[in-house]
Fold:
Amino acid sequence: MEALEAELRPYRNTHHTYTHLPERGRRRQEILAEMRELAGREEPKWRSGYASGSVYHGGADHIEFLNEVYAINSQSNPLHPELWPSAVKYEAEVVAMTASMLGGGEEGAQGVCGTISSGGTESILLAMRTYRDQARAERKITDPEMVVPVSAHAAFDKAAHYFDIRLVPVPLDSAFRADVEAAARLVSSNTVAVVASAPGFPHGVIDPVDELSELARRHGIGCHVDCCLGGFVLPWAERLGYAVPPFDFRLPGVTSMSADTHKFGYAAKGTSVVLYRTNLLRRFQYYRNATWMGGLYYSPTFAGSRSGALGAEAWAAMLAFGQEGYTAATKALLETAATIRAGIEGIPELEVLGDPLWVIAFGSDDIDVYAVMDQMNSRGWSLNGLQNPPAAHICVTLRHCQQGVAERFVADLEASVQVVRRLPGGRGVMAPIYGMAGATKTRATVEELLERYGDLQFKA
Structure:
């Protein structure tokens, strides 16, 4: 809480806080000047490559290009295709190109289709609700379950919470991949879907998608592959000769996937693609109402009105990169990640978890990794804290491919470890929070803290 309050304090102390509409509107140039000043405070950290994930491209020319695309399409709304047929064109082609990239053109998978969503979380929520409704309609299941690795994204737990689906957790093996034998034991007559990650957010490890999807196929149920992080990296990594295990629609048991255009697709924030093997499955995602007094109503995703400019930006980014551009970007990304991984492995107190390509998690049996994270934060780095086991990760992006950034990360990490070695007690600020979160009896307490964190974010 204190960290967030400290971050927000300079903004609230130096700028007027609005809790009511001003009596008269402010001059537009004043508003723009204030926004430029606020953005200027935030920009150096991510632009200089200190952030894990968050900004995946960030080049000035690319940002300017996407901003121009947005300006051209700022008024478009896919809810009204009669007014903006271009918005429909852009989104349909983004879906088609993504499907083709992920095995949708292969034999047995030519019918792959999908929709655009607002991000990976919505793509996952849509897929899980689709499986729930399919099972209800076709198998009369009223107590749906989904078999989900404990390393899968929290969006699956969110889907379980929203849609009254029981989440059945699958443990991990020693390589931090989903344990297939355990998953097989957990499938029941109420299972509507089996989940795999390629890769998982915490450790950057790819689950055994081939075995999990085959398990689902044998039981006649769906298999969703969360490829939000990997969808726009793994196809090109495979082309470059990296050892990428099978993960997409080329596997007959894979029935849906999610891939984020706004991550390594290098589009602006606010778009993801959810894909289905068949149109018959996708139809369970749609909402339609033939009896509303306002007329016939249909929407393919959770939103009604939404910005067509975001879909246009995804379309423009994909066309601007093309296969050659994505391959070159992936080459730079993976080479930089290899430098960072080697640097972490060269620090005796730290251990890389699993066998990641570009989302690199590290833990330690010798020192408090959260204290290391605190030290990295004091040096300007923004890393992701993990738990069970205690760890931190860096998601490598094109921002880290700038000259000297990987070397700076490794040097700062080595210095941070040296400081933590000398700390009395050796514990970091985050250690008590993560330790409390790991105890079942105190989970409610930690979730109350998270609620307060949310309240603080929305306080003017």
Observations:
- The radius of gyration is 23 Å.
